[in-house]
Design a protein that fits this description.
two-stranded antiparallel ribbon; alpha+beta
Length: 64
């Protein structure tokens, strides 16, 4: 939805919004949101990108 309404936002920034900024907003950035020693990251595979952008065919799958 964000990418549809704001196409100038890059995938890099979308991922930051969804990870570190989200964790900060929820007050859990000390534990989640980035890859750092002592944190508990999760990894999600995103498929169906076209030119680095999400499409209706894009899918996400937690892999770790």
């Amino acid at each position: 939805t964000i990418q549809t309404h704001f196409p100038e936002i890059t995938m890099e920034n979308l991922l930051k919004l969804a990870t570190l900024n989200g964790a900060r907003y929820l007050g859990i950035a000390e534990q989640y949101g980035s890859l750092e020693t002592g944190k508990q990251p999760g990894f999600v595979q995103i498929t169906g990108l076209e030119n680095g952008r999400l499409t209706p065919k894009s899918r996400s799958k937690r892999i770790a």
